[in-house]
Amino acid sequence: MKFLVLGGGAQGSAAAFDLLQDPEVTEVVFGDLVTDRVAPFLEPWLGSRLRTVRVDASNEDSVRAALDGVTGVLCALPYYFNYEMARLAIDAGAHFADLGGNTEIVERQRTLDDAASAAGVSVIPDCGLAPGMVNILAQAGIDELDRTDSVRMWVGGLPQNPEPPLNYQIVYSLEGVLDYYTTPGLVLREGEPAEVEPLTGVETVDFPEPLGRLEAFYTAGGISTLPFRYRGELRTMEYKTLRYPGHAVVMRAIRDLGLLDDQPVSVDGAHITPRQFFIERVTPKLRRPEGRDLVALRVEIRGERGGAPATIRFDLLDRYDEATGITAMMRSTGFSLALTGLMQARGELREPGVRTPDETVDPAVYMEGLSRRELRISRSDASGD
């Protein structure tokens, strides 16, 4: 199997690393605009099973050249490239998976279903942590229950050693985080999709010590298309982001004061964008290269089984890998992308064509794959309300 990984950032690097652990993968082609360096944990494979190639995602010829002879494509580029990259992969007869995160782009990708099926390939958007892992776990619970009433998901990337005032460190694009804090979230309420204001719906969620109590609030992005898929079938479905207590009230004040606006304002004759100014000012304070991160995840599915109320809960706590220097966010997101790509290449999917992970990824096979990567999902079952 030969794979093309598009995007040389944190998640693409983690996905490439994961692929290289599999002896069936003969070559990983790492495509990016910058090819003169790779993450230290990838260096042992350079010149053997790992090859870098300059790829300009805005140039079709550049992408087509990199696609030559590949079995699958893993796309870790910004979401607005996902549709075109999927189309080019189908043209090349290659499977395609991406990190998704934008529902409108996913719906555009669905229009490629006939072309993907005719080419005998699979296209799966939303293959990261959230969306991605949480959607597959949610589907696993739905499949097990006779009737599902509600699905709730909580996910957060956090510093192991929080520092005020935000108790947060950058674990992926800060621009992306701010998008989630300013874009309405999508939920299912009384069976109908609805929008909710981000940074609202604050509640507490308890995890085992030493992590302890976290807060959760609505954000955009993590639930993807699930509310539309289960419209009229489930009563409640929602996604919330996890942070240390007190984060939401600070970020909501910053947002409501206009400091996250993306429209330019005039200051002494100069035009500046409040959001970009905010990013430039806070990034040095939130980017801690020596800081260790963790990922906390919980998915809870409630309904009925065998005529009695039942609850299935999945939990994940993962931490920075000291041996490789790969962060918990990279492991849970990039490894999930790579695992999905390997399942595509091996024909381990429920259905071909363009499908989201919850529609086509077998949860049992996926969770077994996570376990081999020491991303261990714990499960608990409860009866009664």
Which CATH top level class of the largest domain fits? Alpha Beta
Estimated helix fraction: 25-40%
Count structural domains: 2
Average pLDDT rating: 95
CATH topology annotation of the largest domain: Dihydrodipicolinate Reductase, domain 2
CATH H-tier superfamily of the largest domain: Dihydrodipicolinate Reductase, domain 2
- C-alpha geometry: globular
Which ranges are low-confidence, i.e. pLDDT below 50, for 5 or more consecutive residues?
none
CATH architecture label of the largest domain? 2-Layer Sandwich
Largest sheet report: 9 strands, mixed
How many beta-strand runs?
18
Number of helices: 13
Layout of SSEs?
Layout (H helix, E strand, L loop, with lengths): L1 E5 L3 H11 L6 E6 L17 E5 L5 H7 L5 E4 L6 H10 L3 E4 L4 H8 L2 H7 L2 E3 L8 H12 L2 E13 L14 H9 L2 E5 L2 E5 L6 E4 L6 E6 L7 H4 L6 E8 L3 H10 L8 E3 L2 E3 L1 H13 L6 E13 L2 E12 L8 H18 L7 E2 L2 H4 L2 H10 L5 E6 L2
Parallel strand pairs: 1-2, 1-4, 2-3, 4-5, 5-6, 6-17, 7-12
Antiparallel strand pairs: 7-15, 8-9, 8-12, 10-11, 11-12, 13-14, 15-16, 16-18
Walk me through this protein's architecture.
With 385 residues, the chain is α/β, with parallel strands linked by helices. The chain folds into 2 domains: 2-128 and 333-366, NAD(P)-binding Rossmann-like Domain (Rossmann fold); 133-328 and 375-383, Dihydrodipicolinate Reductase, domain 2 (2-Layer Sandwich), CATH 3.30.360.10. It contains 13 helices and 18 strands. It has helices spanning 10-20, 60-66, 82-91, 103-110, 113-119, 133-144, 174-182, 226-229, 247-256, 274-286, 328-345, 357-360, 363-372; strands at 2-6, 27-32, 50-54, 72-75, 95-98, 122-124, 147-159, 185-189, 192-196, 203-206, 213-218, 236-243, 265-267, 270-272, 293-305, 308-319, 353-354, 378-383. The strands form 3 sheets. Strands 7, 8, 9, 10, 11, 12, 15, 16 and 18 form a 9-stranded mixed β-sheet that branches. A hairpin with a 2-residue loop joins β15 and β16. α3 runs parallel beside α4 (103-110). The mean pLDDT is 95.
